[in-house]
Recover the amino acids of this structure.
């Protein structure tokens, strides 16, 4: 999620620092598991990571055999992503661009993934429309977002009230709102799950993390990470 609290303008160093903490590494691993569960087999598929950041998911998906394109408006993120992919010994393509106007023709991808990007965008409807446009019929969208009814989101709202411009502008959605956005874009939601049910406290995270899947069976309330899969008819 890069739930480090790092504003998107800070750049790749903050994200690296987040992953270097045990809470960050644990949380990233749980979120990645949720994303991979919903993405299914990606071997040989054309996959777009929209808002790819420093390329963690790009490198993972490329290692799994996907033909991956990463798009992000931040050149520093793209540089970090290129380095990560090169270090991992895999191949991927990167393009500067925004979700609201993806620089690809219609039906270019089998899978579109977008992880913790939507909450920063003023036009979520337009972003969903774009993701649906670049998906081929039968293709799937995998979206990850910070869940509105979670302690993590509450903490960020407080940071917004205290003056953080990033978190003041961010909009955290409910599962119902994410579902509605996907459906408005003509997609059929096939899964909506929660993950990361612990608060942003290291020792508690370590105690609760082994039960995360179990919490997920109870519902999405309290989940810091919401993962949605939707298909284009
Ligand atoms: C919280 S980071 C998530 C990065 C990556 N998806 C991950 O999970 O590690 C948000 C990313 O969204 C990117 N971003 C911000 N505005 C965007 C936009 N309009 N379109 C696409 N990406 C955007 C930022 O540059 C940043 O890399």
């Amino acid at each position: 999620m890069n739930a480090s609290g790092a504003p998107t303008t800070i750049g790749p160093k903050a994200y690296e620092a987040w992953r270097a903490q045990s809470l960050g590494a644990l949380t990233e691993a749980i979120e990645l598991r949720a994303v991979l569960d919903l993405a299914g087999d990606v071997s040989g598929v054309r996959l777009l990571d929209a808002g790819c950041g420093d390329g963690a998911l790009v490198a993972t998906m490329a290692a799994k055999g996907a033909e991956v394109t990463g798009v992000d408006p931040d050149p520093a993120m793209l540089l970090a992503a290129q380095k990560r992919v090169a270090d991992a010994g895999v191949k991927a393509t990167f393009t500067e661009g925004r979700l609201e106007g993806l620089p690809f023709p219609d039906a270019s991808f089998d899978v579109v993934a977008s992880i913790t990007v939507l909450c920063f965008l003023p036009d979520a409807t337009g972003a969903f429309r774009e993701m649906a446009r670049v998906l081929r019929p039968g293709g799937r969208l995998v979206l990850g977002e910070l869940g509105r009814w979670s302690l993590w989101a509450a903490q960020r709202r407080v940071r917004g009230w205290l003056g953080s411009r990033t978190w003041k502008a961010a909009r955290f959605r409910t599962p119902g709102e994410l579902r509605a956005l996907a459906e408005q874009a003509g997609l059929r939601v096939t899964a909506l799950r929660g993950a990361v049910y612990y608060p942003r406290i290291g020792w508690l995270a370590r105690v609760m993390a082994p039960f995360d899947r179990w919490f997920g069976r109870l519902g999405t309330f309290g989940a810091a990470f919401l993962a949605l899969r939707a298909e284009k008819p």
